[in-house]
Amino acid sequence: MAGIAVDDHDIILTLTLGLPSSVCDPIIISFDLTNPAKLTLDVVITRLLNEETHQTSSQSYPTAATPTINSSTNEALVVSPACQCPLNEITCFFCEKKKHYCDACHERKAWLSHKTSGGAHVAEGAFSAEDLWSNDDDDEAI
Fold first, then answer.
1. 3-state SS track over the chain
2. Domain range summary for the chain, segments of one domain joined by +
C-alpha cells in the first residue's frame, strides 16, 4: 500500500461521479438536502442500493413459463426476478417519508416545479445554511 489515506468523502465521490443521469439527478438532489454530518458512506451506499432496486424493479421483465426440471440432467435453473419490495418498506430519499419512491414524491415534484419556474431564489439570504441544519437537541446550556 502507498500509505495514502482515503476518507469516506473520496469514496462517496468515486461512487457517485460515474452514475448515469437517470440515477444521478435524484440521488444528488437528496444528498444536497442531507445534513453533511449525516452524509456517511453507509447512508450513500444504502441510497444507491435503494435507487438500483427501484430502477431494476420498474423495468419490465418477460415472464417465462415455469421450467420442467429433469433431475437426471445437470442444467441450471431459470432465475426469475425477486418480487418487489412492499411499499410500506420503501423510503423516499427526498422527503424521507415511507411508502413511495423519490420519482413519485409530491414534495419533490413541487420543488422541481418551483425550481423550474424561476422561484427558487425567493428565500435567498433569508436564512443561513446553519439554520437549516441546526438541531435544538444539540444545543447545550453554557
1. CCCCCCCHHHHHHHHHHCCCHHHHHHHHHHHHCCCHHHCCHHHHHHHHHHHHHHHHHHCCCCCCCCCCCCCCCCCCCCCCCCCCCCHHHCECCCCCCECCCHHHCHHHHHHHHHHHCCCCCCCCCCCCHHHHHCCHHHCCCC
2. 7-58+84-120
First-to-last CA distance in the chain? 46
Cα 42 to Cα 5, 24, 141: the distances in Å are 18, 17, 32
Q: Are 48 and 27 in contact (CB under 8 A)?
A: yes
Taking CA atoms, 83 is separated from 45, 56, 87, 138, in Å, by 22, 11, 12, 42
Quote the pTM value: 0.40
| pLDDT single digits (tens) 86-121 | 778 888 888 888 888 888 899 999 988 888 886 555
Q: What is the C-alpha to C-alpha distance for residues 123 and 121, in angstroms, rounded to an integer?
A: 6
What one-letter code names the amino acid at 100? H
Give yes or no for a contact between 93 and 47, defined as CB atoms under 8 angstroms apart: yes
What are the grid coordinates assigned to 29, written together? 438532489
